[in-house]
Design a protein that fits this description.
Layout: H1 2-19, E1 21-24, E2 31-34, H2 39-59
Antiparallel strand pairs: 1-2
Helix pairs in contact: 1-2
Length: 60
């Protein structure tokens, strides 16, 4: 089950890298970070999601 979630999250990361936009938690809900507008927060979200995907796939 967790490996499937990790694989799905990895696919979402791939989609975010192609489109240049990622949805991440911000405040009460969340927001979309774009690579062109806010590169630092975009890459931070990608790194956090990649770490979570690796943890879901290998740790759990």
């Amino acid at each position: 089950m967790f490996k499937l979630l990790g694989a799905l999250l990895a696919l979402y990361i791939a989609q975010c890298l192609v489109t240049g936009a990622v949805f991440a938690k911000s405040g009460l809900w969340g927001r979309t970070y774009r690579r062109d507008d806010d590169a630092f927060n975009y890459w931070c979200a990608i790194v956090v999601y990649a770490g979570l995907a690796l943890a879901l796939f290998f740790w759990f």
